[in-house]
């Protein structure tokens, strides 16, 4: 490493500032805390209102369903939860399926006369 370019080493050192994310068990600290609180509240509720062995099985399955996808989402991208939350609230923003028709106008200039023709009207005129 000592033979490497010192400017390159400084750039890499500065880059690590932007990549530092508090991670616990592979998850960002905020996400792990939120998931743990949610899981704990669900666990307490299940143990209060159900038989203990059903609650135990349900809590273990719920932990797997809750923590494994969160780990997979954040494995490569610690900021992945921002995209994940956005897709939950507004899935249409990340899709190209919805579109709106726009009124496109063509400007025709002939001499000193300027005409604005709608593309829809022009298409109807050519098809007749």
How is the secondary structure organized here?
Elements: H1 6-19, E1 23-24, E2 27-28, H2 29-49, H3 52-74, H4 80-89, E3 105-110, E4 113-118, H5 119-127
Antiparallel strand pairs: 1-2, 3-4
Helix pairs in contact: 2-3
Would you kindly provide a written description of the structure presented here, covering whatever features stand out?
There is one protein chain. The chain has 128 residues and is of the alpha+beta class. It contains five helices and four strands; from the N terminus they run αββαααββα. It has helices at residues 6-19, 29-49, 52-74, 80-89, 119-127, and strands spanning 23-24, 27-28, 105-110, 113-118. A two-stranded antiparallel sheet has the order 1-2. Strands 3-4 form a two-stranded antiparallel ribbon. Helix 2 (29-49) runs antiparallel to helix 3 (52-74). The protein is elongated and about 85 Å long. The N and C termini lie far apart (75 Å).
Order of helices and strands: HEEHHHEEH
Number of helices: 5
Backbone CA Rg: 29 Å
Shape: elongated
- Percent helix, as a range, is 55-70%
The major pleated sheet works out as:
2 strands, antiparallel
Report the end-to-end length measured between terminal Cα atoms: 75 Å
Sheet with most strands: strand arrangement:
1-2
Low-confidence stretches: none
């Amino acid at each position: 490493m000592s033979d490497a370019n010192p400017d390159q080493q400084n750039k890499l050192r500065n880059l690590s500032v932007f990549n530092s994310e508090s991670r616990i068990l592979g998850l960002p600290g905020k996400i792990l805390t939120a998931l743990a609180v949610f899981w704990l509240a669900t666990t307490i509720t299940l143990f209060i209102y159900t038989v203990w062995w059903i609650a135990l099985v349900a809590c273990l399955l719920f932990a797997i369903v809750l923590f494994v996808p969160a780990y997979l989402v954040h494995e490569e991208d610690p900021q992945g939860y921002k995209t994940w939350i956005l897709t939950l609230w507004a899935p249409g923003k990340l899709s190209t399926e919805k579109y709106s028709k726009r009124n496109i106008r063509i400007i025709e200039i002939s001499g000193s006369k300027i005409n604005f023709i709608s593309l829809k009207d022009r298409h109807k005129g050519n098809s007749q």
